[in-house]
From TrEMBL:
Pfam families: FAD_binding_8, Ferric_reduct, NAD_binding_6. It is a multi-pass membrane protein. This is Ferric/cupric reductase transmembrane component 2. It is found in: Membrane. It comes from the Eukaryota. GO terms for biological process: copper ion import; intracellular iron ion homeostasis; iron ion transport. CDD domains: NOX_Duox_like_FAD_NADP. It comes from Wickerhamomyces ciferrii (strain ATCC 14091 / BCRC 22168 / CBS 111 / JCM 3599 / NBRC 0793 / NRRL Y-1031 F-60-10). It is an enzyme of class 1 (oxidoreductase). Belongs to the ferric reductase (FRE) family. Residues 424-537 form the FAD-binding FR-type domain. The keyword Flavoprotein applies. GO terms for cellular component: plasma membrane. Keywords: Electron transport, FAD, Flavoprotein, Heme, Ion transport, Iron, Membrane, Metal-binding, NADP, Oxidoreductase, Transmembrane, Transmembrane helix, Transport.
Length: 698
């Protein structure tokens, strides 16, 4: 959909607006705050010199106090706009804390009237109720001016650190966009340009940083708990993010004593940390929401995978939770020490702050890989519910404090994603028929019609989110499936989806077929998408696809795309397609698909592992073996083994005299081995070698 192209501009504009608006906080108007705090130390007959609701319920109806505070504002500045904003701040305080609304013009009138009765303040007025407005003692007022100017400067510094989070991710995205643009439009490694970007420095940089995993495996288990390990490049970006967060949270504090607002060193540092961490948490909310949605515009801009942005989504969320937790702990300790916790705990903003903290901690715990593996559908439902609760809790926590534009941004991002998802369903044809076929007891194939010509935004390696309009298939949920062009006869206008049944929706599809005692079934569906990222496949002379099991469809669609483009450009690339499967039945089932590759000169190798025959004594790791070719009369090779192949053996047999791009898809362990093996090839290569993977593992 073309309107997706303008979304980065729209979202960027919203982010710029974020953090501009403030509400009932001391720095909204430093002038008003200075005057309010200066006058609170006098006796207005309220029995308190604090800043509680009760104090404002008493002061705001008192015309002498209103006249005094407006006169202070009028006398301490020459800037009309500055003074009007201060008067608006007073209006907000009385409206929210005393339920009395004074329009700014009315406050100006009170100030004019007060000049007729105003008197100089005396020591007597601190302990005896005033019955007239008072003027400002310049010498005494200077202390309040200095106190709040210092606090204001510290808060502004915290806001600068807050924007640092946005600038950090903006820089990462801009750099990714430039590199992606270069890959697509400026750089080519084909047609004899073998030495481009293959010097020792670049090879070592790619071997150490941009290609490999941080460790060999992308997931490890500690006491049975799955831990996701980012790639080396992702880890570098995350490390820079963590370093910035630590610096932004722990540095740049300046204590000024004596100070009217916070009178002790501990109170003042806690107040500043409270501001700093609150701003940090708010600043991380928009990136967290944006990196986690389906219609993330930066996926296409940067060419980064969905898995990459989901990794950044997780780390932004972890930073958000940490900052919010520190904020809550600091203010809870402050309230307990000062003896005001019982009173503060009755305020709505405090209650909703507790709710927000609990929601974020539970949300982070629930989003771990363990719960995703147990039941992805349930995880998604709970995760979305927590996301809505977070928005609600932060709304009521901050609607009287300010900085609501950060929250507005999150709401707009969430709404933007939902609107695009709805429009995508309409764009791709609304309700349509899909044919579901059981290929065997574990494999299922779905055929769906292509969208109408101009509405078809399919690209190789993409996936659709599909709604199955059947109650037994949970019609209210959508599920991602990799999509490939069907090259079978009578399916020229169709896309195909293949998958192995597990728990969740895939198991329910197989169960529905069994209940109907049919091998095929036609159901109504809606499609949403396509999603994913484009892999630049036009710069190399050779393409090697290494894929495992039923996860072959992303590689298959990429191979078809190269064939079709080469035919259009009258070019010829070397294409190798190596498919590792459990048994020969896979090949027999999908032979009609593979025949298209064979007919167009693709070097097709099918490696049969026979893993169903392996005993317990066999190692779960890939075993180094001698590859033996089974005789075949067809234009492809079938290699039968009695163990899983060592991926490095497969990769090392490739002729690397020309620029080569390795593309892989399949199970997590399979992809980890491919990434590691290709990294080793890059280290000493004399030609350009690239690596891409199609994986949604998180």
């Amino acid at each position: 959909m073309r309107f997706r192209h303008i979304t980065p501009v729209i979202l960027g504009s919203i982010l710029i607006f974020s953090g501009v608006s403030q509400g009932l906080v001391i720095i909204d108007s430093i002038l008003a705050t200075q005057c309010i705090y200066y006058l609170k130390d006098f006796d207005w007959g309220c029995g308190t010199k604090g800043q509680s609701h009760a104090a404002y319920m008493c002061r705001c109806p008192n015309i002498d106090w209103v006249g005094s505070v407006t006169n202070c504002i009028e006398s301490q500045s020459d800037d009309r706009g500055y003074k009007d904003h201060a008067l608006a701040h007073v209006r907000t305080r009385c409206s929210q804390k005393a339920m009395i609304d004074y329009p700014v013009d009315v406050l100006k009138a009170y100030q004019q009237n007060a000049t007729k009765y105003i008197q100089e303040p005396t020591e007597y007025d601190f302990d005896h109720t005033l019955h007239h407005p008072i003027s400002v003692n310049s010498t005494s007022f200077e202390f309040y001016r200095r106190s709040f100017n210092h606090i204001y400067a510290q808060v502004i510094r915290s806001q600068a650190y807050q924007w640092g989070y946005i600038f950090f991710w903006t820089f990462v995205i801009m750099l990714g966009t430039i590199l992606n643009f270069s890959k697509h439009f400026l750089i080519s490694y084909a047609n004899g340009s073998k030495s481009k970007f293959t010097n020792n420095f670049i090879n070592k940089l790619r071997y150490k940083l941009t290609v490999p995993n941080l460790i060999h495996k992308s997931q490890i288990r500690i006491l049975g708990w799955p831990i996701q390990i980012p790639t080396t490049l992702q880890s570098f970006v995350i490390s820079m993010f963590i370093i910035y967060m630590i610096l932004a949270t722990t540095t740049g504090y300046s204590i000024d004593l004596p100070n009217e607002y916070q009178k002790t060193r501990l109170n003042q540092i806690q107040d500043l940390i409270g501001y700093r961490t609150a701003f940090g948490a708010f600043a991380l909310m928009p990136p967290t929401f944006l990196f986690g949605i389906r219609n993330n515009p930066f996926i296409k801009l940067t060419g980064s995978s969905i898995s990459t942005f989901l990794t950044y989504h997780k780390w932004c969320a972890r930073g958000l939770v940490l900052q919010g937790f520190i904020h809550s702990v600091v203010w809870t300790d402050y309230a307990i020490r000062e003896g005001g916790y019982a009173m503060w705990a009755m305020d709505d903003y405090w209650i909703w702050g507790i709710v927000g903290t609990i929601v974020t901690v539970l949300m982070l715990f629930q989003s771990s890989n363990l719960f995703r593996e147990l039941s992805y559908e349930f995880f998604l439902l709970v995760h979305k519910t927590f996301g809505i609760l977070l928005i609600i809790s932060m709304w009521y926590h901050c609607n009287t404090l300010g900085w609501m534009a950060w929250l507005y941004t999150c709401i707009v991002i969430w709404g933007y994603d939902r609107i695009l998802r709805f429009l995508s369903i309409l764009w791709t044809g609304g309700v349509k028929k899909a044919k579901i076929t059981s290929l065997n007891e574990r494999l299922v194939r779905i055929v769906i019609p292509k969208p109408f010509g101009p509405n078809d935004y399919y690209f190789p390696g993409c996936f659709y989110c599909i709604y199955f309009l059947n109650f037994k298939l949970r019609f209210w949920q959508s599920h991602p499936f990799s999509v490939m062009k069907s090259k079978r006869s009578n399916e020229e206008d169709c896309y195909a989806i293949v998958f192995k049944t597990h728990k969740g929706i895939t198991g329910k599809i197989q169960k529905l077929l069994l209940e109907n005692a049919k091998k095929s079934l036609v159901v109504d569906i809606m499609t949403e998408g396509p999603y994913g990222h484009h892999i630049p496949l036009r710069q190399h002379d050779q393409y090697v696809f290494v894929t495992g099991g039923v996860g072959f469809s992303p590689c298959y669609s990429q191979a078809i795309d190269i064939i079709e483009k080469d035919q259009f450009r009258n070019q010829s690339k070397i294409i190798k397609f190596i498919w590792v499967v459990e048994n020969l039945e896979y090949f027999e089932i999908f032979k009609p698909d593979m025949e298209y590759l064979i007919q167009h000169g693709v070097d097709l190798q099918i490696i049969i592992t026979n893993t169903n025959k392996l005993g317990k004594e066999d190692s779960p790791d890939y075993t180094s073996i001698e590859l033996e070719e089974k005789p075949s009369d067809e234009l492809y090779k079938i290699i039968e083994l009695n163990a899983r192949p060592k991926i490095s053996d497969i990769v090392n047999q490739i002729d690397l005299s020309i620029s080569t791009n390795f593309i892989t898809s399949g199970p997590r362990g399979f992809i980890d081995d491919m990434r590691s093996s290709v990294s080793e090839l890059i280290k000493d290569s004399k030609v350009r070698i690239d690596y891409h993977e199609e994986s949604f593992s998180m």
